[in-house]
Amino acid sequence: MSTSTRTRSLSPVFIIAIVASAVVLAVNAVKRAGIALGPVTQFAAPLAQLLAIGLVVGVFAATPAVRDRLGSIGAALCAASLVPLVGAEAVINLVLPSIPPGTISQPRSGLLGIAFTVSSISFLLGTLAFFTALWRVAGSPRFAILLAVASSVTIAFRTAFPEVVLQSGFGGLAGAVAMLTFWLIRSHRTQTADLLNAG
User: Fold this and answer.
1) pLDDT digit string (tens) for 65-74?
2) Residue 137, strand partner residues
């Protein structure tokens, strides 16, 4: 059953974080496609997960209808899992490239591999719970939600998909984040205009 689409004002801090996350995700997609953008992109890659916390917290704070038990659990799990994913991206982009290709499998087969798996599964479960709660909100952007979930699956199980699928995942998630930001801003503006007209 759909719940109210009423939203609250989205803080400019969250808007900046969400838009920046979309930009970094797009850069990651371009970089993984083999287009050299310079060494700065290696440092920027982990920022996507860090800034994505702004998306989760921003949507949760600005959309009261999503703050039921499922949405609360999903938001908490998703935001918490993004923290170790920041570390995982840092290792993937800043550490593993300097290790000889023949020995990369060694650290991944130990505790590092377990940490990658746990953080990825937690991220996927949190994403599914959070976006399922958002799906139930009346007027929510269904295509953006489906795109975000599908893209998150490819990112969470990155080793199970070809590189081109992972590239599409980063690009799709960037698009989904942009659409969610637009929806939040538009919903708030529509609500504000309705209140002014009613007054």
Assistant:
1) 888 888 899 8
2) 3
